[in-house]
Amino acid sequence: MERKEVIEKTILFVKEKLAGDSSGHDWWHIFRVWNMAKKISENENGDLFVIEMAALLHDVADWKFYENEDEGLQVIINFLADLELDKTNIDRIIDIVRNVSFKGAGVNDKMVSLEGKIVQDADRLDAIGAIGVARTFAFGGKYGNEMYHPEKKAKLHESFEDYKNDKGSTINHFYEKLLLLKERMHTKTAKHIAEERHCYMEMFLEQFYGEWENIR
Ligand code: ADP
Ligand code: NI
Q1: What's the pLDDT tens digit per position in 78-107?
Q2: How many CA atoms lie within 13 A of 141 on its CB side?
Q3: Euclidean distance between CA atoms 116 and 114, whole angstroms
Q4: Rounded distance, CA 18 to CA 47, Å?
Q5: How far does CA 205 lie from the centroid of its chain?
Q6: Whose CA is nearest to atom 13 of ligand 1?
Q7: Is the model's pLDDT at 64 over the cut of 80?
Q8: pLDDT tens figures, 121-150
Q9: How far is the C-alpha of 166 from the C-alpha of 168, rounded, in Å?
Q10: pLDDT value of position 161
Q11: Of 33, 92, 97, 106, which Cα lies nearest the Cα of 70?
Q12: Is the CB of 169 under 6 A from ligand 1?
């Protein structure tokens, strides 16, 4: 099968899997990450086919959708095997999907391949800036989290279990993840794009607290 056809079939598969999602993982998130990953790779190189496939599939096996991560990964492996991708490419794509997620402030990233670093950067760029703010509040609403609680302190989680099970406020999520992402970008291209988006989130928080205190 032509690579173009594989990509088209993958788009259809992803659209079907993520249809109706309201937690910030809808098709348009995937679409933005896919485009951003392509843009980053223009400067940083990497195998474009693996980058595109991993970007398209990166959220299909998310721990928020499946009880068990391996179950989600197996769905992707089966899909790729049906498309007759060779084992090397399947392994490279699965390795990226497995390691893409943020797992807590104190948990180190394990992404080793250049392709994976590009996809992770693209995914993280979509978690910050104006779109990041919007997605974060959408996520908080969907999971019934408080928007803000002045007495609740943010936590820098040391384990994925802690991070996963903590129902903190949405404003705390900025300190627990979003404001940390700029420093955790891998590529120079993404670091550069992250600057402005990071700055925008700081402005947003300043305005938010100003309004909360009735001084703005
Ligand atoms: P990753 O792409 O690293 O796997 P997630 O899937 O956890 O990230 O997050 C996707 C989106 O949901 C991001 O915009 C993220 O900030 C937001 N999100 C994740 N956890 C929370 C939370 N506890 N509160 C608010 N937003 C969250
Ligand atoms: Ni994502």
Answers
A1: 999 999 999 999 999 999 999 999 889 999
A2: 10
A3: 5
A4: 25
A5: 21
A6: 127
A7: no
A8: 999 999 999 999 999 999 999 999 999 999
A9: 6
A10: 86
A11: 97
A12: no
